[in-house]
Amino acid sequence: MADDGMLMNFSVGEDSLGVKAVFKGGRWRDRLQAKKSAQRRREKHQTNGALTGSNAVPTKTRETNIDDEGSRPTKRQRVNGAPNTHSRINHVNSKPHEVVSSLFTYNLPAKPSAIKEIRTEDAPAPVPSNAPLDASLSTFTSLGLSPFLSTHLIQNLNLTAPTAIQKATITQLLREDSDAFIQAETGSGKTLAYLLPIVQRIMALSSSPASSHSANLEASEKASKDEKKINRTSGLFALILAPTRELTHQISTVLTRLLRPMPWLVAGTVTGGAVKNHEKARLRKGLNILVATPGRLVDHLDNTEVLDVGTVRWLVLDEGDRLMELGFEEDIKGIVQKLEKRKDEKKGEWRLRKKVEGLPEKRTTVMCSATMKMGVQRLGEISLKDAVHIKADPGPSTELESVTGSKQEDKQTAFLAPAQLKQSYIVVPPKQRLVTLAALLKRTFARKGSAMKAIVFLSCADSVNFHFQAFSRKEAQAPKESPSSNPNTKSNKNRKISGTQDASTPEEMPKTSQKSEKPELPTVSPASSLTSPSNPGLTLYELHGSLAQPLRTATLQSFTRSSNPCILLCTDVASRGLDLPNIDLVIEYDPPFSADDHLHRVGRTARAGKEGRACCFLMPGPEEGYVEVLKECAGESVIKGEAAEDVLRKGFGKHFASAKSKMDASNAGSGKWDDEATAWQLELERWVIDDKRAGEMARKAYVSHVRAYATHVAKERGMFDVKGLHLGHLAKAFALRERPGNMGRGNIVRGGKSTRQDHGEKRRLVNGADDKAVGEKRPGKADLDLPPTDGQDAAKKMRMKMKEHIAGASEFNIG
Ligand SMILES: Nc1ncnc2c1ncn2[C@@H]1O[C@H](COP(=O)(O)OP(=O)(O)OP(=O)(O)O)[C@@H](O)[C@H]1O
User: Fold this and answer.
1) What are phi and psi of 154, to 5 degrees?
2) Which ranges form a coiled coil (predicted)?
3) Cα–Cα distance measured from residue 700 to residue 709, given in angstroms and rounded to the nearest whole number
4) ipTM over 0.90
5) What is the pLDDT of residues 44-70, one digit of tens each?
6) Which helix (H) or strand (E) holds 761?
């Protein structure tokens, strides 16, 4: 273990050598060795006459954890006033008799080598790769959409031309009934790509050719109404499945907008977390298109008689790879079997009744994602037969010979981020992670208008919660009034919105957040410790799977609608498919768990041809190897390395010096970026020490973070090896002065050789991303067809461990 057992920031008398140590943890041999060496140090010091006069202090007791084989030399403690040869700054704002280890000591576990390779040259601005095509060359009508629908798109939805993937998909799905696999980069308009042809074909069942060929919306709408044969009771024609509730609602919103001029066609949703009886009532009234999460749909298929799927002719699996990864394939298989069964039962019925004219005989299954590999055998099992592979580029769609049932290897398609996305990485020592994140956010939101919205991805729910509370706490806040730990979890009904009670109300802050403690209020708060005087309205949101569903929905809605600059702290629950407007920057503060996750996370910006920036935090050492993965995902685009010091300098430089430190006369040298950064960190550390619940929150976040770290996909675990983590330094990133006592070497759960499926299973177990009860286990691939391995044992242990934590705010609630 890389931890050197360094004694960090504990409060002692003037001479720490007078301390009587109690040694805990680790092997007895190590304890004995440590005891002896401490004894020797004491004796030597006494011989040298170091403990004299005022320096002599009564013996105190402290705890030293020696879980790790501490082969490193023990770091000498620094005492106030003592010269410090390792550090450029000392003890800023430190209380009397407090020992403070510097953030900027050069005693770092590894030097960030990648920083030396920074490529500063700016490449020529690349052409956006997911933008709509030139309207003079391609229009929706030219693809075969009716003038009625095309006019609606142009006039009401402000969409003048299709994107490349829309061009390819619409043509294909209007022309043929073959199954299809749509793969195009994030933000390229895949949702409309599959919705438009489906809506057009359902529309065609309703209206006369005359009305659908008219471009006059009003006249056409009236004519269609008069002649319509189809209404909400005519049957359910399309089913769209998505992995998260958020995505389901988003697809439904797009669909509702699309159907606005066709009020006789009705779409609806069924998702976990919603009231089942309300859904039943809607199903009873009749729907033509249903958007659902798989678990809840299975539930309705089993228990809601009025849900008749015999007429379903289109089945869409949005974010297909995620659905598979999260282990939904059993659910999907069950759904497909029911569709088949009901279709066969209905055949006779349809013959007796008047068949819906134009309804295809065959059901079409469509899968789509930015990062899905073809050739996976299991795709056949969920009814993707002789699928057509539709890609935005190059040109026409490519027939796949045999996807179904074949054992061909995944085609190693290189999935790329949008070309116009500006990507960078920062190599930050673990100690400085928190201040560097703060600096980056301060710099990004330095002035009003400099940026609108940013998303920060963290590895687990506990960490999101801690950072939300830490950044939104008011600096002047009395410790006792500090926010409680995780007040927003499902278990805590009396939720408080931290920092909003006494924080200055930012202009245009969602009013709901200041009223009461109703659970449907968004988790929003002023970003009090990130706000600069020239951008006072900065707000902070948190989103993760531990939040109750109404909170998740309210938070996302509020963040989406906010016209204030704001930051969303979240887990990967927000990484897939979400189309949030005006995202300028995506920060991967905790690196993604896989390259695919990276593409989806950064894909929340630079959408539909717009600009965007993304930045990934890495730690010095093996993690720097991840730059190569980032480069692979960037294709031709340049990835810039930024020096952490530059970020800190800009974030904590004179310009951003806090008003408090400027006024503090005792703070000599304030205004210097490193002093400011240290003061900022110390402030936070005091909060964690003084407020018991803040301390608990920090420790929980730390433990969850380390455990989550152990679940990177096996392929990338060499770069993210939990054994290499410097646990002592990492504690600083959670404002802790030392690592929590239970984080010894033996207590770190490692992922072993678990696969991506294991990883998905782990995440899903405690998800909130899907729609079954949290913690409910469903079989993933790991349980179905992989031989047991060490990795699986490790994964099993991990699952058990996670289950233990599920009762509270799950430590690991990523989804
Ligand atoms: N033809 C178009 N012209 C302009 N904007 C469009 C067009 N089609 C879609 N968009 C917009 O592009 C954005 C991204 O669309 P969408 O969410 O469907 O992308 P996606 O490919 O599904 O992305 P992801 O892979 O991240 O889910 C949306 O805001 C949508 O309104």
Assistant:
1) -75, -50
2) none
3) 14
4) yes
5) 555 444 333 333 333 333 333 333 433
6) helix 756-765
